[in-house]
Amino acid sequence: MPQTKILLDESEIPTHWYNVVADMPNPPAPPLGPDGKPIAPQALGAIFPEAIIMQEVSGERWIPIPEAVREIYRLWRPSPLYRAHRLEQALGTPAKIFYKYEGVSPAGSHKPNTAVAQAYYNKQAGIKRLATETGAGQWGSSLAFAGQMFGLEVRVYMVRVSYEQKPFRRSMMQTWGAEVFASPSDKTESGRKILAADPKSPGSLGMAISEAVEEAAGRKDTNYSLGSVLNHVLLHQTIVGLEAKKQMEKAGEYPDVVIACCGGGSNFGGIAFPFFADKAAGRKLRLVAVEPTSCPTLTKGKYAYDFGDTVGLTPLLKMYTLGHDFMPPGIHAGGLRYHGDSPLVSQLYHEGLIEAVAVPQLATFEAGVQFARAEGILPAPESNHAVRVAIDEALACKKSGEKKTILFNLSGHGHFDMAAYDKYFSGELEDYSYPEAAVAESMKRLPKVG
Amino acid sequence: MPQTKILLDESEIPTHWYNVVADMPNPPAPPLGPDGKPIAPQALGAIFPEAIIMQEVSGERWIPIPEAVREIYRLWRPSPLYRAHRLEQALGTPAKIFYKYEGVSPAGSHKPNTAVAQAYYNKQAGIKRLATETGAGQWGSSLAFAGQMFGLEVRVYMVRVSYEQKPFRRSMMQTWGAEVFASPSDKTESGRKILAADPKSPGSLGMAISEAVEEAAGRKDTNYSLGSVLNHVLLHQTIVGLEAKKQMEKAGEYPDVVIACCGGGSNFGGIAFPFFADKAAGRKLRLVAVEPTSCPTLTKGKYAYDFGDTVGLTPLLKMYTLGHDFMPPGIHAGGLRYHGDSPLVSQLYHEGLIEAVAVPQLATFEAGVQFARAEGILPAPESNHAVRVAIDEALACKKSGEKKTILFNLSGHGHFDMAAYDKYFSGELEDYSYPEAAVAESMKRLPKVG
């Protein structure tokens, strides 16, 4: 039997990130300020270090990965690429299925790829502390780990309802030395205001962002750090696709289709962009972003300028959006509950260069369980979206007899999501259809610009 | 900087397990029946397949690993060996610290190494179902995974209090297709008896063993499977040490000391026995088993014949024991709460060929947190015992200036143990001293044989 795992040596960790902007047919639409005019990159200097801002606006194809960042990557990178022999057999498909596995990182997903880079650049800029928000805790724990690696203090504002219901991610952050506060908190003016109005507020990601940004903007020694959406975040994640390309080459294969789940876009961009470079050069392949039917940003949203956060603090980003105050139903794939999407992913989708598909919750868990029973690994609910579509592609091959090569990104393990599996097995998990009325409402509040 | 991870290719997965019996100065003390006479291996035929029984009593040095078992091992093996560069720096030690990481398996520890082998041999023998017990769920989930790989049904009797308090390991077992029952259950006579006497019984490992053994003994299609203690289990685990030896050789190093936590002994035996072969051949090195001060079997127990289970169903095993009905305090390293120890480990300890040390709970968590902050990985509470002693050895080197090479086994990750870390951080975790009076009591009930 051919190899199950295609491994790379530490010396093969890529030396550069890939910037998709260099190969896009059109320049990225610029972020706009409240006045509807493009904002100057320097305007972000209060919360981001200059190196990050330069990456955010760069058009260079290759951006060097600092040696100190590669040094930390070596704790888990290169991540393995698997050939899913046993899943193929279980499906009876003639397709070849490969998956890149990012769950081997300390935090258990792809998120540390950018957290480590962001912590490094902030440390270089003399910053002492990072502030960020987190929902269920995946991003907060990644930044806690990264901060610890470079001796930066990390302060995480964790949505109160998650803080109380999900103590394990919180303990993980504390293990890596981060301070974690339930948001809304009494540490910031935003938090105190919200608490004054509603002392029992359960919090929201939007509120937590406000607290973290306020703290970063108000303190010289503190910056803000974001886990998805922005160009520099997707840039850092391209290490996933760059490694996967080397590994596919070692396996003597090239994918016909590359699949990844897509919330803010960093997981999809991470694996897909390096393959997009080949597509831009004329190679035929499909790049498929998978989102939940309950939050179908690309497949049902509008391509328009909108705020990145719920309360409207960020610059306006041109992206597919369901409206910045749209509240997605409570699916367990928390990382995919985002009203917007990465401007880079959005633009490529708008120009017809990538595909998107939306899948319902129960079908993703069904796929995740089938995957776990064949391959052993327990996927995160977000990753189950990619598993679902990879299995669907393989089953289509079974019907058609095509021997396609399928590659997907298994973005993380589900060790902290077993409560969701528990609900799935006990029949308590719901499917949500497209919340058309709610989206129509929030769309009315799209800012009038651009 | 030298490599962080020393990896092996799939083709380097060992082809044979190593049987330490071949290199022990004296033959192993035989298990005894209730009459005090050595039992015939065939007596175990009601619950074990013949291939396993033959391994249990084998004196052959090398036992081939079936190709079908190596095929499943390839899903995560060879496991990585790490050089703990960042931990060394944090400690300021001249010692070199290496660790083998078994947390990469689907179940998150070394346990699947034997679960997969046991499932295979049972499948070969025409068995359809495996019954086993589990406490917190680590062993049950490993056997659930292994059973799924070979199409065997798996029935797990899970101690009721864990079943109710720790639903996540239960969901994990269900994801891999196992049936999980809270024990005592109404599925067996033993269970029904216990429930009749106490309908609210919280259960115990001893009770769960009774249920699983009863089911296996009473059904032709069903066998029993055990996760530690017995010779064949330790045999299967030697794949850990065999890989580690190859990896140390690749790194150009040889350990002065090999450290592992020790409950039933399969984790310690797994990494230490292949190195013991060198010691038996004259090489100078130390092999150190680490146990909790609250359950100090090797360091405080008596070397005597005793039952392997609480209620006295098993053959009598010659081992270090605290008495078969000793109830260890409720430390979070559930895998180390065992009154006895592997007869092979016990005999080597009795003959002065290996060392043992007991460490208190708080010091192990302190070590685990220090490790996580340096290396990223969050260790299981059991593994923290090995981390503690590895750090202590490294700090002794700092004092003495010795440049020792330290190797320890990081037997698993702590993703399902964050509640224990949570208690550690909130100051709720207790230290337990040696429960001298309780041990004196249980020692009175040692069977009078041998």
UniProtKB/TrEMBL annotation, chains A, B:
Coiled-coil region(s): none
MF annotations from Gene Ontology: L-serine hydro-lyase (adding indole, L-tryptophan-forming) activity; pyridoxal phosphate binding; tryptophan synthase activity
The keyword Amino-acid biosynthesis belongs to this UniProt entry's keyword annotation: yes
Enzyme Commission code(s) on record: 4.2.1.20
The keyword Lyase appears for this protein: yes
GO CC annotation: cytoplasm
Function, in words: The beta subunit is responsible for the synthesis of L-tryptophan from indole and L-serine.
Family statement: Belongs to the TrpB family.
Protein name as it appears in the record: Tryptophan synthase beta chain
Species, as recorded: Candidatus Muproteobacteria bacterium RBG_16_65_34
Species classification: Bacteria, Pseudomonadati, Pseudomonadota, Candidatus Muproteobacteria
